[in-house]
Design goal:
- The chain is mainly β and about 120 residues long.
- The chain has a single domain, classed as Thrombin, subunit H (Beta Barrel), CATH 2.40.10.
- It has a 6-stranded antiparallel beta barrel.
- It starts with 12 loop residues before the first strand and ends in a 6-residue tail after the last helix.
């Protein structure tokens, strides 16, 4: 039997949590409530009943399941399937990258509480 090879850059983890997506259009800013589906160090898969065009830049905000501290990170919509969106994190701040790496490590170790 052929073994499947994971070609993704980052391991994905189930992530069932409320989140907010901020879209900054040139004329107005829109805030959309959504739900996390999967999380990785490099991005997030989320559900949002919204029209987020592929290629658009967004800010994603959710609570760290371990500390309940807010996590805010810029991202770019890379793919879409109806209302499921794949958002790649565009973190250029060292502290944000560190926080995402720590969250990913917590998911990997199984120490993240259920949301």
């Amino acid at each position: 039997m052929e073994q499947l090879v994971n070609r993704r850059r980052w391991q994905r983890y189930p992530f069932d949590a409320s989140l907010r997506v901020m879209v900054d259009h040139s004329a107005e800013a829109t805030v959309v409530d959504g739900r996390g589906v999967h999380f990785s160090e490099g991005g997030i898969c989320l559900f949002a009943a919204a029209n987020l065009p592929v290629g658009s830049q967004v800010k994603v905000e959710f609570r760290d399941p371990h500390t309940n501290e807010p996590v805010r990170v810029r991202g770019k919509v890379r793919n879409r399937s109806v209302y499921l969106y794949g958002v790649e994190f565009l973190s250029d701040k060292f502290e944000e990258r560190q926080q995402l790496a720590r969250l990913s490590a917590e998911f990997r170790s199984g120490s993240v509480p259920s949301a």
